[in-house]
Design a protein that fits this description.
The chain is mostly beta strands. Helix content is 3%, strand content 45%. Strand 59 and strand 60 form a beta hairpin. The N and C termini lie far apart (188 Å). The strands form 17 sheets. Strands 1, 2, 7, 8, 9, 10, 11, 14, 15 and 16 form a ten-stranded antiparallel beta sheet that branches. Strands 20, 21, 23, 24 and 25 form a five-stranded antiparallel beta sheet that branches. Strands 30, 31, 33, 34 and 35 form a five-stranded antiparallel beta sheet that branches. 28% of the residues are buried.
């Protein structure tokens, strides 16, 4: 016959996963086999029917038996082949199906189940049913100390109205040889039958249960009231207190709080907790303990004193927790630079050397307290300005550092500007005269002190390393330049060439002027002889190399002869005196005007107007009736006998003249008759 296998490890795992409180209890003492488990004969695989033989002759069967004999509908009939019955609150393991698997009690019959492993329990549950009516059963629990405990319970009929059966719907089969006909030889699975009931008991946890006795106390009658016990399950009372200590961390920095938690089992309602450090009591009666003053390698334990019923032993000690306390570390960051004094535009490299940086430090570079760069241990820049201040802040993630953020020393940089050299040439004497040596001076700025010089004459190198160059025999057209090489550390250019100086050599002449020493005012002009030719004559009365006395006027005059732009030849001078010849000066007005346009006597001429004679005159012209016909305050021999553009008629007219001469400060008057003729 098929052998039933039971695995308590599997049961325990399944129950633990579903939190089942009642576990199967291995027992012996089943007296009948009422489950057909294999083959085609329920008769051959069981020892007794469950109902009265003359009435129904039914037994239970396994699922495998139902499938093997083609019960329909399929997968409905039969107990689990393993005999393991599991409900949300109860788990039972039936006895092997190839041997006794039930305590079978007729009225007045007795039976006994012995615990394979006697133990203590708080609760016990029996898997039961009755056939041919309910059955009253007396149950006696026997303990290892010889004491016992009685109880009487009612087993309900497997086809009866059970309110909450623990297991149901497995069907039944007649105890016979197959084949089997549905509804005749097997039945009732779809209707929820047969029904199993669990009967629960509260047990004294201090006593060890050894065996359970049964007596069917039902009264025999038309129904046989057969009682069946298929399995025992219970809550085994192993009330062994336990306490487990855990820590928030076992490796911490000094001064950091560590939190310990005690997790108890079977601690009762008012447990007592005692925390110890290296065996010395600390803390208070709480399931938690915290400390910031633990030392390296301290050992922490917690003792639990349980007041749970049946706790044995009542006092237990937790696991030990050893802590590692790491002393504080001080991070540092040192700052170095490859060169703090450089020229503008040159890259400067800074390096941060950390102490206790951790695995992922954060570096923050600053220039003048403004964040620059990236999170690196180095920083480079070619755009720093003079006197910029560089620093580096490091945030360490190393274990147990304090403080976590430190700042390096500062480095102030000196950035020298790039100087652009410039140079020019000056002459010690800007005038170069024939036969005279010339000294050139190179003037350089931003070229170092001193710079380097290289002189060139007409494109040929002629001298070095001097800011001065002497040209002994200068010639017109000579070209002089100088290449200045800078010796500055920070320079925009290495060298610069001066503008070229082109030499012009001026000749040295012996100048002379030949002209009379004196002139009369009315003398004719004279040619002034000046040598050598090519120069410039200048002075009052000089025009086109001639001297005009009347242009110069009376007095002393200086005429000069020079070569402009030639500072090598001095200007020569000559003094000339012009004197005046005294001539008579009379006001002799004309007494006739012909006005015929022949150029003679057309204008009224009253005398000579010049600086030697008449200086000014005012006139009035009257007709014979005394009417003023013309007047001029500054007459200059410019009246043509007209009034308002109209010619005056022929006739006699009268005039008055008021005038002043060059020889007197007085004014003179004169009057007379003027005849006009057309």
């Amino acid at each position: 016959m098929k052998k039933v296998v039971s695995s308590f490890l599997f049961i325990l795992f399944a129950l633990g996963a579903k939190a089942q409180p009642y576990l199967p209890i291995p027992v012996t003492g089943f007296n009948e086999d009422v489950v057909a488990e294999t083959g085609t004969s329920a008769l051959a695989t069981t020892t007794r029917e469950m109902d009265a033989e003359s009435i129904s002759n039914y037994v239970l069967c396994t699922k495998g038996f139902a499938l093997q004999n083609s019960f329909t509908p399929p997968n409905i009939y039969g107990l689990p082949d393993s005999g393991l019955l599991v409900s949300p609150t109860r788990t039972f393991q039936m006895g092997p199906f190839n041997a006794g698997n039930a305590v079978y009690l007729f009225p007045s019959d007795t039976g006994n189940l012995n615990l394979v492993n006697p133990s203590r329990f708080t609760n016990l549950s029996l898997l039961t049913l009755a056939t041919e009516g309910d059955a009253a059963v007396k149950i006696t629990f026997h303990f290892s100390d010889g004491s016992f405990q009685n109880a009487t319970r009612n087993f309900t009929d497997w086809f009866g109205p059970v309110a909450n059966p623990v297991f149901f719907g497995y069907g039944r089969v007649k105890r016979k040889d197959g084949p089997f006909s549905a509804g005749v030889d097997y039945e009732a699975a779809a209707g929820g039958n047969p029904k199993f009931s669990n009967i629960d008991f509260t047990m004294p946890c201090t006593k060890t249960l050894v065996s359970i006795g049964f007596k069917n106390t039902s009264i025999s009658g038309p129904g046989s009231s057969r009682a069946f016990i298929f399995g025992v399950s219970g809550l085994e009372k192993k009330v062994i207190p336990k306490i487990t200590a855990t820590a928030s961390d076992t490796v911490v920095c000094k001064g950091i709080s560590i939190n310990f938690v005690a997790t108890p089992e079977s601690q009762g309602t008012t447990p007592v907790y005692t925390w110890k450090v290296n065996g010395v009591v600390v803390g208070s009666n709480l399931p938690t303990f915290s400390s910031t003053t633990l030392q390296n390698q301290d050992i922490i334990t917690c003792t639990l004193q349980s007041n749970a019923a049946c706790a044995a032993p009542p006092i237990v000690v937790s696991n030990s927790i050893k802590v590692t306390i790491i002393p504080p570390k001080v991070p540092e960051v040192d700052l170095s630079v490859d060169d703090s004094t450089v020229c503008a535009g040159v890259q400067i490299n800074f390096t941060a050397t950390p102490v206790e940086p951790g695995t992922a430090p954060i570096f923050t570079w600053k220039v003048n307290d403004l964040v620059v760069g990236t999170n690196q241990s180095s920083y480079s820049s070619s755009t720093l300005q003079n006197q910029d201040v560089i620093s580096c802040t490091m945030q360490s993630n190393a274990t147990c550092v304090s403080p976590t953020t430190v700042v390096s020393k500062t480095i102030r940089v000196t950035i020298s500007p790039l100087l652009t050299p410039a140079a020019s040439i000056s002459l010690e004497d800007s005038t170069v005269c024939a036969g005279q040596q010339v000294e050139f001076i190179a003037n350089a700025i931003n070229a170092g002190n001193p710079p380097k010089y290289e002189w060139q004459l007409n494109g040929v190198a002629v001298g070095k390393d001097s800011s001065r160059f002497v040209l002994l025999e200068p010639k017109t057209g000579d070209k002089v330049s100088c290449l200045v090489t800078s010796t500055e550390n920070c320079k925009a250019l290495n060298s610069v060439a001066t503008p070229t100086k082109t030499i012009e050599v001026f000749p040295v002449y012996n100048l002379s002027i030949q002209v009379p020493d004196s002139f009369l005012l009315d003398d004719s002009s004279k040619l002034v002889l000046a040598s050598p030719s090519g120069g410039l004559l200048s002075g009052n009365g000089v025009q086109n190399s001639r001297f005009y006395p009347n242009l110069a006027g009376t007095g002393s005059h200086t005429i000069q002869y020079s070569f402009p732009g030639n500072n090598c030849t001095p200007t020569v001078s000559k003094s000339i005196i012009v004197t005046e010849k005294i001539l008579p000066c009379n006001l002799e007005p004309a007494n006739l005007m012909t006005m015929n346009g022949d150029g003679l006597n057309d204008a009224w001429d009253i005398g000579d107007f010049d600086k030697n004679c008449i200086l000014s005159a005012s006139i009035e012209i009257f007709n014979r009736w005394g009417t003023l016909v013309f007047k001029s305050e500054d007459y200059k021999n410019d009246w043509f006998g007209k009034i308002d553009g109209e010619q005056l008629p022929t006739g006699c007219y009268y005039y008055t003249i008021s005038y002043k001469t060059a020889r007197s400060t007085d004014r003179f008057k004169k009057s007379g008759v003027l005849t006009l003729m057309n």
